[in-house]
Write a structure and sequence with these properties.
- By secondary structure, the chain is α+β, with helices and mostly antiparallel strands.
- The protein has 3 helices and 6 strands; from the N terminus they run E-E-E-H-E-E-H-H-E.
- It has 2 domains: 1-34, no CATH class; 39-132, 2-Layer Sandwich (GMP Synthetase, Chain A, domain 3), CATH 3.30.300.20.
- The protein has a 3-stranded antiparallel beta sheet with strand order 1-2-3, with no helix packed on it. The protein has a 3-stranded mixed beta sheet with strand order 4-5-6.
- A hairpin with a 2-residue loop joins strand 2 and strand 3 (22-26).
- The N and C termini lie far apart (40 Å).
């Protein structure tokens, strides 16, 4: 499997990442720091997207249902050289399904996530998965 993207920026303005039928605007200047995601936030967003995609994928393979999933990701950035050192995630699955094996789901997410495994080679990752019963 291969991937290809193109991104564009305009001097002293923002940048754009067109992907398929959508575009993601992101900041490259101090003027957009409070309004647009920066590259580090896009990176963490990609990490979160990988986990959420695998929740959906494994819900079919493990035959459980859920109404929604949410994830919170925190990271520590080091200065010299600039890099992410530590990523901590908290994943919440909303489900009443008794077939949901949280431990196995977490293990599968961490074993088969493309972005997860790529990031794991360069920094530490720790996370939790909790389930909340739907009301």
């Amino acid at each position: 499997m291969k991937y290809h993207i193109k991104a564009y920026s305009i001097s002293n303005k923002e940048a754009m990442l067109p992907i398929k039928q959508e575009s993601i605007n992101f900041g490259t200047t101090s003027k957009s720091a409070d309004t647009l995601p920066n590259p580090a936030e896009l990176f963490l967003g990609s990490f979160a997207s990988c986990i959420l995609k695998n929740v959906e994928r494994f819900s079919g393979l493990m035959k459980f249902t859920y109404t929604k999933a949410s994830i919170e990701v925190n990271a520590t950035r080091l200065e010299n050289p600039p890099r992410m050192e530590n990523i901590i995630y908290n994943l919440t699955i909303y489900s009443n399904d008794k077939k949901l094996n949280s431990d196995l789901l977490k293990k599968n997410i961490e074993k088969f996530g493309t972005i997860y495994n790529t990031v794991k080679l360069s920094c530490t990752i720790s996370g939790t998965l909790r389930t909340i019963n739907n009301v």
